[in-house]
Structure formats: C-alpha cells, structure tokens
Amino acid sequence: MAKLTVVEAINQALKQAMASDDRVLVLGEDVGKNGGVFRATQGLLDLFGENRVVDTPLSESAIIGASIGLAVYGLRPIAELQFEGFAFGAMEQLVAHASRIRNRSRGRYQCPLVVRIPYGGGIHAPEHHSESNEAYFVHTPGLKVVVPSTPYEAKGLLLAAIRDPDPVIFMEPKKIYRSMREDVPEEEYVIPLEARVAMEGSNVTLIAWGAMLHVALEGARLMADRGVSCEVLDLRTLSPLDTDAIIESVKKTNRAVIVHEAQRSCGVAAEIAARINEKALLELEAPVERVTGFDVVMPLPKLEQRFLPDARRVADAIDRVMSA
Amino acid sequence: MPRTIAKDFRIEWLQILDEHGNCDQSLRPSLTDQQIKKLYEELVFARTFDEKAFKLQREGRLGTYASILGQEAAQVASAFALEPGDWMFPSFREPGASFVRGLPPRMILQYWAGDERGSNIPEGQNDFPITIPVGTQIPIGAGAAWGAKLRGDKIAVLVYLGDGATSKGDFHEGLNLAGVFSLPVVFFCQNNQWAISVPLTRQTAAQTLAQKAIAYGFPGIQVDGNDAFAVYKATHEALARARAGGGPTFIEAVTYRIGDHTTADDASRYRSKETVEQWKKKDPIDRLIRYMISQGLWDEAYGQQTTANARARVEAAVEELQAIAPPQPKDMFRFIFQEMTEELREQMETLLNGNGRSH
Predict the structure, then answer these.
(1) How far is A143 from chain B (nearest CA, A)?
(2) Cβ contact, residue pair B140, A66, below 8 Å
(3) What's the CA gap between B15 and B231, in Å, rounded?
(4) Bridge-partner residues for B7, per DSSP?
(5) Interface contact flag, B140 A51, Cβ < 8 Å
(6) Residue A310 CB-half CA count within 13 A
C-alpha cells in the first residue's frame, strides 16, 4: 500500500474511475494540460486524451451547465470549479437545474454530476480563495455535499460520489491537500455517505468535517491531558446529514461541540444543533457549543488565523460544556 | 502602414414566403405536398391549443400561461425539421415545438396548471422540460450536444431561446463553449421583439441578434420568423450541418408576440395597438394558406376540417386534464434523490401524519 496525500488520493480515484467507466470525463479550467492548479488532475490528459480531460473556457456557468447536459445525455461528468469563491458563477445552474432535474421531470431525467471544489482557508491565499460556502449547497434540496478529511477518505468518498446517481458537490479542503500522508489501498473502494467515529470517547462529542476534523482532534488531545475523553465524529457528508450517528454519540456523551470554518450564522452547525435539540435535548448536560468562523467576510492572510477555529478555541468550548 | 480590415461579416436574411403568400420557388424547401399539409395542420393545432389555454386561464382552470400567438411558424416549422433521435431544449414559449415532437398536449396544460407530472416527458422523446430561468437551458443543450459528439451519435440538438435571453450570461457562455468545441447544436432564437415590457432596442445595441454568432465563431442567419418555409429551411440546413460535424448555427427568427407576455401581463401598458395590428397582417398561417390555395392544397372544407380536428384534439386534452387525479403530497419527496434519505422520509411522514412534530 502506498502512502498518499489527499491530492494524490483524489488523482488516483479519478484515474481509476475513468479507467473503469468510459462515461466518466473530467472538465474545468486548467484541468488538462496543466493538470489542475492543485495538480489533482495531473497525468489524466496523457492517459485518457483530450475528449475526456477537457480544458474549458473561463465560464463557470457554462462548465456546470454543459456538465448538466452531459449528465442528462448519459455521461458521468466530473466538473472542477477552481476555487469555492468562483462557484457562485455556477450557482444558478446548480440550484435551478442540477439539483432539480430529477424532481422537475418526475424521474425521467437524472443528473449524476460531481462538482469538485477546492475550498476552505489556511493557505494564505488572495480574496475569494479561502472561503467555506458549503451551507449554500446543503440548503439546496437535491444536492449532496461530501467533504473528505484524509487521503483514505478522499479516495473512497470521491469514488462513491462518482457512482452516485445524484449531483454531488465534492468539497476538497485545500489546507490538507498535502499536509498528511496515509496508507491508501491501491484497489477501488467506496466509502458510504455516512459519518465515522474518528476518535472514540465518552465525555463530549466533537463534530467536524474537512480540515477542521484535524483541529477538533487536536483540541481533543489537548483536553485528554486534562482527563476529558472526547469522541470525535467526522461527518463526511453534510447532505445527507448522518443524524443517527450524531444522536447516537450525543446520547452517549451528553455534550456536543461542533466545529466549522464557515461563518457562524446559518452555518451547518446551526442545523446540527437544531437536530440535537429535536432528538436528544433531555440527554444534554450543557447547551450545544459551536466553534466557527465569525459573521464577517473571510479575511485576507494577515488575519486569517484569527478567523479560523483552532485547537485552543475548541478546547475552550470543551471546557465550557464540561463545566456547565 | 495603412489601416486594413481585420475581419468583415455579413448576415444573411432569408424569406421564402412573403406575407401575401408569394413563394420564391427557387428557395422553396423540398417538402412534399403531404408534408406541407402536415405543417399547416400543426400550425393550426398550435394556435387552437394556445387559444384554449388562454381561455382556461381566464376561467381559473389554468395557472399563468405564456401565449404563442403570432409565433406559431417560428416554433412549429423549426421543430418540423428535427429527426426523432435529435434532442430539443425549449425555453417556456414553445408548446408548438413540443407538439410536433409528439408531446401529449394534456401535459402542457398539466404543466401550466401547476403539476410536475406535466414535465415527465415520455421515454423516447428526447426533450428537456420547460425552463423558466431565462437562457439557462442554453449551456445545458450545448452539453447534451457535447455528449452526443463524444458518444459518436449522429444527432443534433435544437435549443430554443428568446430575444431577452441573448442578454444573459448563459447565452454568451453557452454559445461560446459550443463554438470552441464545434458542438452539434442549433440555437434558435424566437425574436418576438419583447421581453415582457422591454423592447428589443433595450435588449441590445446590435443591429441583428444573428450577428452575435459571429463573435462565437459560427454562422448566424436571420429569417422571417412568420415564414414557415424559411424557418423550416434554415433549421433543416443547420441541423444537417450540425449532424455532419459542421458545428453550431444561430438562427434568429424575426417574429412578434401578438399576445401579452403571459396571462398575468397587460401589454397595452407599454406598447401601441398600431404595431400589433401591423404585425397581425404578417400572420404566419394566413400566408401559408394563400400559398397552399395557389398550389391546390387548400380549400374551405379542408380548412374547416383542420380546425375542427384541432379543436377536438384540444378538447380531448382538456378532458384528460380534468380526469387526472391530483398529485400526491408524497411526490414532493420521492424525486429529490434516487433513494429517499432518512431525513426526507421523516419529513414526509410528518406531513402525511399531520401531527406537525419534527420527530
């Protein structure tokens, strides 16, 4: 087994999916000759040719619109939107069509589309290159939203997304593209769209996804030194949300802390907290805590680290729920 | 060095049948007498349906409806050029095209009556459902054409749009993409001169809409949209070119929206009766009848029979509509994903059990 980074795992998943299903094609800006600005699609053009690995014009709405057409026609397009900040150009196509075609046509047409979007902060990037806009997609009925947290997760979840008959927004936390290596099986494997327990514990449930999973784990380790046993849930999928896994864990620990980069108000943590309220209120020893970005515009690099949740803020939140 | 011309362009104007029914025989499309009669019958059906749909709305039996009055030739004669294997992407003002393709008329009524089952296009009919957000069908149609090209399917895609749509970003992005990849798609613009109350002159400073195609690297042609022969010929040629690998074409069919934008609009607020009356003289069906008379293909009896047949078909569609059971609330949940999620199932049960609790 090889130790791969997240980006390498994504690359491997794309190669394998394209080799085993000739309906699959990759399209987007700079994905072909350049191999993608993050190199996620490196080598694909040489392997599969320019009909299946397509450098498109600079046209987010057309990239996604055409991908919808390709999907409706029977192909399996994997479109890349280069950064989450540029996804908005394609929002109308995603919300007005990709998410609704099955419903609008009462099942006559489907849209098995994967949209890969590098997202999230922590890489000292210019404006619009560091944001966390998953809530817009989660709030849209008919879209699935999947967020990997490690190389092993990335490959299995991407292969699952490619096989999914519904449109999947695959949000790749760019901060962890190359920050870790782990064993990734050579063969194709699929991870189901449900949460996993990244760390077992009994005093408090930490809920996170993407790059923030590692911040949550770090916060958990800080608190372990003080005798607090944290259970850490990696959600993996924000839509559909694995409510059962969340409730099962919260019923066990009686405390919950949710961590996300995105702005606080109407972020996905708010939805999770609402579900915990509906299904496990009487189990709670303390209110659900949210460790999130602030309701401000994502700052430029010089202030970025003060915006993003860190292990210290997570530890403080754990402290609060433990002392309540 | 002297200033030179980098590039010139010309836009062809095509009219074969003028408003008096005179036909330029040298340009006449190769339609058999049977086909011309079929074309005429489709035009009459489209108009008859449209009149009934309008009445139904006024009677409160249909929701808002977008009339096609005056635009029958533009949409019917173009769809007439499609092969069964081709794909068609309407906007929201092409029921005439859908009927040519074989869509049960009841489904258009169902759609405007507010029932999603009206968009459950029958298997074998490769037509996209009605698209409301203006112009957004354009890149999708281009994408379907792309799929056909990649699969080696010798088909073409016909994408309809209006003059308003030419101002949208998706028009630019979709046509541009189609040009870059030389996709087998024909973009057909029903230029009916109005986008609700906004006239064409406020939509563009360009002298024609057809010339916008030049910017995307493929031909644009302007046709008399009320001339069924010109519409048919231009579309037929464009579709053949697309199928043969010759890339996209943009057809601007110059026509006029005789009616209001929809039944919720009142066009007298923003345009003059005089212009409307001028355009009524250019009626697409009248001129075809005059031509058919000159060829011995039409007489009063045939005309009346055609209208009677159309009315009967429309009435049958209305009866079908009345007979359909209302949609079920669970249908709101069944088609969001291929497999209903747990959360959706719970929400559905909350609704169906009527207790309003969320768990």
Answers:
(1) 8
(2) yes
(3) 8
(4) none
(5) no
(6) 6
- pLDDT in the model for residue B25: 96
Phi and psi based region of residue A301 (left: phi greater than 0; alpha: psi -120 to 50; beta: remaining): alpha
Residue A192 neighbours by CB under 8 Å, 6+ apart: A160
Find the helix packing angle between B33-58 and B300-323, rounded to 10°: 50
Residue with tokens 């060095």: B1
Neighbours of B69 (CB within 10 A): 18
State the pLDDT confidence band at B357, using cuts at 50, 70 and 90.
low
Q: What are phi and psi of B247, to 5 degrees?
A: 85, -170
Query: Taking 90 as the threshold, does the pLDDT of residue B74 lie above it?
Result: yes
Residue A101 C-alpha, separation from nearest chain B C-alpha, in angstroms: 9
How far is it, in rounded angstroms, from Cα A220 to Cα A226?
10
Separation of first and last alpha carbons in chain A: 46
Same domain, B167 and B315: yes
Question: What is the average pLDDT score of chain B?
Answer: 97
CATH number for the segment(s) A196-323:
3.40.50.920
pLDDT at B109 over 70: yes
Q: What one-character DSSP code corresponds to residue A94?
A: I
Asked whether the beta carbons of residue B343 and residue A102 sit closer than 8 angstroms, the reply is: no
- At residue A114, the pLDDT reads 98
pTM: 0.97
Of A25, A97, A106, nearest to B117 by CB-CB distance is: A106
Q: Rounded to an integer, what distance in angstroms lies between the CA atom of residue A199 and that of residue B331?
A: 40
Kindly list the catalytic residues of A: 129
Specify whether the CB–CB gap between A40 and A14 falls below 8 A.
yes
Domain covering A2-184 assigned CATH 2.60.40.10 in the classification: no
Q: Which two tokens stand for residue B190?
A: 């029903």
B105 and B169 belong to one structural domain: yes
Q: Each residue of B165-193: pLDDT tens digit?
A: 999 999 999 999 999 999 999 999 999 99
